[in-house]
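Task: sequence design from structure.
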């Protein structure tokens, strides 16, 4: 799968991934900023701004006008905010690509930010925060990162807090946009049935007026430094009929050279219904209904963790079994066979291949790399790197990651204190 990355005169980068034969196209605007780049008093402003661009723009002064423009081409549009990026996209028929450029540039570059709409949207976001609070399966990830990255802005929730959201005013949005929404900090990415020539022409037409640099005020995102000597536990008490936990270990950033071996390690532990943790925790012992291992990465740090949805009465055993599987693999008490290694590799390659059948997912695959890493790895190269991983590589990464002082356990459930969990992980 080929891609082209070009830079316009104003330093805006334009990424094109032609997919011949596809009838659809996804156009996206990616801004290299998220909740970790915020000031504490306006935590949640990245996510709040994501909402506000849909509320009216220079050409289309209401949410309805924007929606009508996208509906008129049969397209879909949405946005997302993470801890280190924000994106806005429209997916439509290839023949409607110019409308997608027109609407996206209008929304992102010229939002109205009407104070009345800002006040109205605060209630929506506070309800969204409450929804996550009432959905432990979603909330547990926030609790884990609060613990793992404590003391750094990476520990802040993407949506902010009700208090921080209520305090945000139009002037805060304007300042935030000056700091982060400029050409050198943005990528326009297009994937689907389109040519690079067409994409570059439209990018110049709709984004050439975007300022090259920001306000001139330099904001440095605080680098995460892991200063811990013991494992950590965080309990988020909730009176629920289920308990949820993530057991994980601090890891490495986006460009770490051993990331493919770590991906195989993650798949062996909790990738799919035949993985070690799924088999041991759910199938053999009946302790949980959901088990999965995943990796999270940022520019400077990351983690490998396993989520488990468990019967509250069985959580002690589920945590102990999970710890045993982690360290049993690293210590080679539980050997990795050639068959298991191959299965994990095929699992990873198969999931990536399936994910890349959609123009939106292809767009994300390439654009997120373009934002953060020096060299973009195409899917074909990723498959090769996965195939190169050996059992020795996996064991090496397991021993690097699975150290007691790097361990974090986040728990949501009907428990009064965390003492018993502290005892378990110590």
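Answer:
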């Amino acid at each position: 799968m080929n891609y082209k990355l070009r830079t316009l005169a104003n330093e805006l980068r334009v990424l094109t991934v032609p997919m011949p034969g596809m009838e659809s196209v996804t156009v996206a605007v990616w801004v290299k900023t998220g909740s970790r780049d915020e000031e504490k008093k306006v935590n949640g402003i990245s996510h709040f701004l994501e909402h506000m661009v849909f509320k009216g723009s220079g050409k289309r002064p209401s949410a309805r006008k924007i929606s009508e423009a996208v509906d008129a081409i049969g397209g879909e549009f949405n946005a997302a905010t993470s801890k280190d990026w924000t994106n806005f996209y429209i997916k439509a028929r290839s023949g409607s690509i110019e409308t997608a450029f027109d609407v996206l540039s209008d929304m992102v570059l010229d939002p109205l930010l009407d104070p009345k709409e800002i006040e109205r949207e605060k209630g929506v976001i506070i309800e969204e925060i409450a929804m996550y609070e009432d959905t432990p399966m979603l909330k547990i990830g926030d609790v884990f990162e609060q613990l793992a990255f404590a003391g750094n802005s990476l520990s802040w929730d993407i949506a902010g807090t009700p208090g921080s959201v209520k305090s945000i005013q139009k002037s805060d949005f304007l300042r935030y946009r000056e700091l982060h929404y400029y050409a050198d900090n943005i990528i326009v990415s297009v994937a689907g049935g389109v040519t690079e020539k067409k994409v570059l022409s439209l990018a110049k037409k709709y984004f050439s007026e975007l300022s090259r640099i920001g306000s001139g005020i330099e904001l440095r995102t605080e680098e995460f430094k892991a200063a811990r000597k013991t494992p950590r536990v965080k309990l988020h008490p909730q009176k629920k009929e289920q308990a949820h936990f993530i057991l994980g270990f601090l890891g490495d950033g986006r460009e770490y050279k051993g990331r493919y071996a770590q991906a195989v390690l993650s798949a062996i532990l909790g990738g799919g219904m035949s993985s070690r943790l799924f088999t041991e925790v759910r199938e053999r012992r009946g302790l949980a209904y959901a088990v999965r291992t995943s990796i999270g990465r940022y520019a400077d740090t990351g983690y490998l963790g396993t989520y488990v949805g468990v019967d509250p009465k069985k959580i002690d055993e589920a945590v102990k079994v999970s710890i045993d599987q982690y360290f049993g693999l690293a210590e080679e008490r539980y050997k990795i066979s050639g068959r298991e290694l191959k299965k994990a590799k095929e699992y990873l390659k198969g999931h990536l291949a399936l994910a890349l059948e959609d123009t939106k997912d292809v767009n994300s695959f390439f654009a997120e790399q373009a934002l953060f890493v020096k060299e973009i790895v195409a899917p074909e190269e990723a498959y090769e790197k996965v195939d190169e991983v050996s059992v020795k590589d996996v064991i090496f990464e397991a021993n690097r990651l699975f150290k007691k002082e790097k361990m974090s356990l986040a728990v949501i459930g009907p428990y009064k204190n965390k003492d018993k969990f502290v005892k378990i992980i110590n």
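DSSP finds 16 helices and eleven strands in the chain.
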